[in-house]
């Protein structure tokens, strides 16, 4: 999963990578926490020290990337598969 996320990130940011507070591994972990443990985005945001919107954006991006890599069956928060 982590390899698929790194490939998707490189594909989207070919010219210049963006600095983020959250590492790719943390993005995957927080998405899995959200999906598996049904933790609120506010709770996860407080743990990582970022806003709820940042967590929501990261969860949607990770789910979309995993859907496109065929590593995720379905998603409640991300409906569209964009290849």
From TrEMBL:
Q: Pinpoint the Transposase Helix-turn-helix domain residues.
A: 21-66
In terms of SUPFAM superfamilies, this protein maps to:
Sigma3 and sigma4 domains of RNA polymerase sigma factors
Database matches in InterPro entries: RNA_pol_sigma_r3/r4-like, Transposase_HTH_dom
Top-level lineage group: Bacteria
Question: What's the name of the protein?
Answer: Transposase family protein
């Amino acid at each position: 999963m982590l390899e698929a996320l790194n490939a998707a990130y490189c594909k989207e940011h070919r010219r210049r990578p963006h600095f983020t507070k959250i590492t790719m591994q943390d993005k995957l972990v927080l998405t899995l926490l959200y999906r598996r443990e049904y933790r609120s985005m506010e709770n996860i945001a407080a743990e990582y020290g970022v806003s709820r919107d940042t967590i929501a954006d990261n969860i949607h991006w990770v789910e979309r990337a995993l859907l496109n890599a065929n590593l995720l069956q379905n998603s409640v928060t991300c409906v569209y598969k964009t290849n």
